Amino acid sequence: xxxxxxxxxxxxxxxxxxxxxxxxxxxxxxxxxxxxxxxxxxxxxxxxxxxxxxxxxxxxxxxxxxxxxxxxxxxxxxxxxxxxxxxxxxxxxxxxxxxxxxxxxxxxxxxxxxxxxxxxxxxxxxxxxxxxxxxxxxxxxxxxxxxxxxxxxxxxxxxxxxxxxxxxxxxxxxxxxxxxxxxxxxxxxxxxxxxxxxxxxxxxxxxxxxxxxxxxxxxxxxxxxxxxxxxxxxxxxxxxxxxxxxxxxxxxxxxxxxxxxxxxxxxxxxxxxxxxxxxxxxxxxxxxxxxxxxxxxxxxxxxxxxxxxxxxxxxxxxxxxxxxxxxxxxxxxxxxxxxxxxxxxxxxxxxxxxxxxxxxxxxxxxxxxxxxxxxxxxxxxxxxxxxxxxxxxxxxx
Length: 397
Ligand SMILES: [Zn+2]
What we know:
Layout (H helix, E strand, L loop, with lengths): L1 E6 L2 H26 L11 H14 L1 H4 L3 H19 L17 E5 L8 E3 L4 E6 L3 E6 L10 E6 L5 E6 L13 E6 L5 E3 L4 E2 L6 H16 L5 H35 L2 E5 L3 H5 L13 H13 L2 H11 L4 E4 L24 E3 L6 E3 H11 L27
Parallel strand pairs: 8-11, 11-12
Antiparallel strand pairs: 1-5, 1-7, 2-6, 3-4, 4-5, 6-7, 8-9, 9-10, 13-14
Helix pairs in contact: 1-4, 2-4, 5-6, 6-9
The site of zinc ion has 8 residues, from loops.
């Protein structure tokens, strides 16, 4: 996905806003119809039936009929595709859910040549054709791949418009050097490579963070519904959007570099969602280490780790292997000793057997690269139940 800043005129913005509203309306209608569907009942309406209903709805509601049929039909097609993905037993996706105004603003256009086209008009400016809005300017920040087939227009929470042209990222050819790399999702650094390199995912600068904190305090004091509150919210959204942009660029560059340099890329198979699930617990069973966990969560989410792994899988299909994460951080990458005490601190690993010392995340990354089989025997303690079955760390992707 290559994303560009869209620069619509005020009149075009009104059209785009309508498109977003119509796409959301149609999508939510489909969600509602499917919500009433359950096994054993007559099938929920398929795409064709929904198209007939859309025609009827357009006849009934002039505001819907005034909008673009292309936009509305595409929203239905997208929904049908999302449902197919949801029912795919091999790779089930999330159930398509309700879209909310202000949060999920966007629409998609396919059919280049018939419904839309894109062209460059100057060094820094491109034009994309949007139904009913005409040619809309966008910042030509990099080349638009020649084979793009569709695009999606979105408005972020800061009120900025973007256009993303859909291309399946071309796989990066493997270098053919037979080299494997391990990548550890770190806490002290975003990611450590088994080569010893540390990758830092960019975040907000210290000054931006201070500003964010100040804005958040102001927001807490601002009266509900006041103009000031609106302005402060807007400023906060802009700062957060800036951070997201940086993280995205970082994942794009880093994943291309890694896919180019190594034949096999090994990462831990982490269910980030499980790890970041709140540690608060219930009233009867209050969670332990709530504070530490909260800090750790911010680190993980801030690291852009999930994004990096997704991009690697896109660019190096079949070359990314997921490794079971057990013991990679307690195992010495030199002598193989497994001991929780070797992890001196978050950042430092010092083997209690052979004395190897180094960055804890790099040590883990080397273990991941090797995909070692580790058993629960040995000097292992405090890291899990002792009666655990020996397990192979290596799993095919
Ligand atoms: Zn050792």
